[in-house]
Design brief:
The complex is a heterodimer.
Chain A (H helix, E strand, L loop, with lengths): L10 H17 L15 H17 L17 H13 L12 H11 L2 H12 L5 E4 L15 E5 L2 E11 L7 E7 L10 E7 L5 E5 L17 E11 L3 E2 L5 H12 L10 H12 L1 E2 L2 E2 L4 H29 L7 H24 L16 H11 L7 H12 L14
Parallel strand pairs in A: 1-4
Antiparallel strand pairs in A: 2-3, 3-7, 4-5, 5-8, 6-7, 9-10
Chain B lengths: L6 H17 L2 H9 L6 H9 L18 H13 L6 H15 L2 H12 L5 E4 L16 E4 L2 E12 L6 E7 L12 E7 L5 E5 L7 E12 L10 H37 L1 E2 L2 E2 L4 H29 L5 H26 L10 H13 L4 H12 L2
Parallel strand pairs in B: 1-4
Antiparallel strand pairs in B: 2-3, 3-7, 4-5, 6-7, 8-9
Helix pairs in contact in B: 1-4, 4-7, 5-6, 5-7, 7-8, 7-9, 7-10, 8-9, 9-10, 9-11
Classes of the chains: A alpha+beta, B alpha+beta.
Amino acid sequence: MNFDLNFATNPDLVAFQDEVHTWLEENAPRDVPRSADPILYTHEEFEWRRDIGRKLGAKGWLYPTFPSEYGGGGLDLDRATIIQLALDEHRIPVPPYYNSGGPLAAASILVWGTEEQKRFFVPPILRGETVTWQLLTEPQGGSDLATVTTRATKDGDDYVINGQKVFVGGAYEFDYAWTIVNTDPLGPRHQNVSWLMVPAKSEGMTRQSLDLFTVHGAGESPVGPKEAVFFDNVRVPAFNLVGGENNGWKVASTHLEYEHGGAGHLRNIWVLDEFFQYCKETKFRGKPISENPDVRDILADVWADYQVDKLLGMRTFWLHHTKRPMSYEGIQSTFYHRMFSLRTSQRIQQALGYFGLVSDPQWTPNEGRTEVFVRYGLGSLHGGGTHDTDRVIMSRRMGLGRNASESAGQMV
Amino acid sequence: MDLSLTESQQMLKATAAEFVKTEVPTHVVTELSRKNVGFVPELWRKAAGLGWAGMLTPPQYGGAGLGYTDTAVLFEELGRAPLVGPFFSSGVLAPLVILEAGTEEQKQSLLPPLARGERIATVAISDPAPSFGADSVLMTAARDGDAYVLNGTKLFVHDAAAADYLICAVRTEPEDPNDLTRGITLVVVETGAAGVSVRNLEGFMAAVGQVDLSGVRVPASAVLGTPGQGWPALQRAMQRALPVLCAYQVGGAQEVYEFTADYTKTRVVFGQPIGRFQRVQDHVVELVNNLDGARWTTYEALSKLDDHQPAAGNVHLAKAMASDGYYQACVNSLEVHAGVGTDRQHPLVPHVIMARTLYSYLGDPRYHKRLMADAVGL
């Protein structure tokens, strides 16, 4: 076994590592102002992030392990790892802009779409040319995705959509909405849903901002305020329906496997690295607060939890990219991350007191990012399901109380 | 044994509940929270008109002279909103500090205006510090003739923006490294005095401010009681005040419990009300355990105070359980509500923020559990 992420013994990989770092220094300057709070970010920052995304996409580094014939990088695990670590060092999440539906739609279309659909929809996503939001949650549905009521009706060569999605997207422009809809209200559960790629500029689609206390915070790309999206007789060409009418639950199994963490991650949560640093550098009564025995115990708890979070993500990353069989691993890393984030939210306040809550520029640690994590930890229990649905899925994958285990969704 | 409220306590509870329902309905509370408003003068005047700014204050100093449990009944209802305002700072803590520390003359001059709600006071203890305690008092007051000169910052002061004056903890003697509780003096500082600036702070917290003091001169007569004896007086006052704060937290947790339990009946997914799912039931069961742990430790502490029994262990236990209980109750409710519970228009959000704020106020659960262990001789 080898957990080492150092490639020094392989000259080709060292050269590639140098290439990636040099490129990032030139193309992703570190001094661009970045908002601490992912809800409050500027259009200027959005544009900067889009620009980096396009450049990374053009090189195949945005989605390095996706097939190159559809715009991905076609790279191996080592090179994908090098890119991921380098981006992490530059504090650039992948993708650098909010693109919740992008990789999920691309993967789902690659698994379930026609050849024509793959060639039309996937390359612009993987090259970073388009922004795609996922539109799943509805006010009445929440975790119960199969009860979507947003209705798509076939009308000639089009589908006509009516309904509402909520807790979706973020600020600023997007190109496509990767949307699950009901195509047969009288049909049996799980056999009445379908997926559509809806162009964002379609007539009849309107957006409304929500005012939530948290969206993200563990170093993902900023989002802006979450939104509700309304469909009022929105017409979409039938070509945009992916995976066949009423076959959407199968498509969802791929989508959800990715959304639930099935691709793993090598992510460092640098917001927490900064928190440790803050505790080491900030003195109270002449001593770093990290040396206070209470604080030290708390930091140790956070650190231990954080290592498990990283290792579970790494384990899943390795399983996925080496195409080994998977069962509960993706959803497990998602579940662990939620609970770890919740615990960390409280521990930050236990260590820092009100300094964990204040966002005033004079007092807030790490320009506000620590306080953002405190809120994020409370909101991390949901999003892409909840910690409760995670437990249901894990139990099914492990086959608890069943003779047959549920298998993981098909991935690219 | 009798664990019921008296008739007059039940009447007060009903009056307070009606006040909260009428004056601060949910949409008003969420709006105040979204705008980080920590003080509504009009509401304060109305509440003071009902005598709620001087519940514990003895009649000879203009107050109602009621008991701890009486006062807590009111605070439990205020916590249900949760209603912001200097109800605890100026109505409970400051008067008790004055009663514990002040001279007779000071009690007579300071307490009646507080009890009538005409003036508002808050207690400013900590300088910028990651935790609460005597070690968080850093500010020194230099003696200059018959005056003291104060320089520094008091941080995370509750209800600072509403206050007419602060009761400020400062050091008037060199620190004794073996006992940081010694040499602390309580000084009355008018927020309108030259060199004082006050501002409300933004963050995931409610009604917490910063006070900067720059060359502020106060006469020696502004010292409450005896110089150097401030910390023991603060401790005695907190021993009496904290259970009332706990009652506010209990009220918050009670409200969260009620709307969360209701939601499990009305929210239908997977073909049934979510309350039928064992996982959801688990969250509400945890919630109500957090609530009741907070409630009964609080009631016991209040009762001991009313009966003039030794209560230190109970008071620290109550502050630990109420702070943690209210916090965890909000987390349990978030587990049930998921996304909608993070919408700033949802009634849960002001509770989440208030629970976080009060968690660190006057010592977090770890701090109080340690003092509890000392008090009960563990």
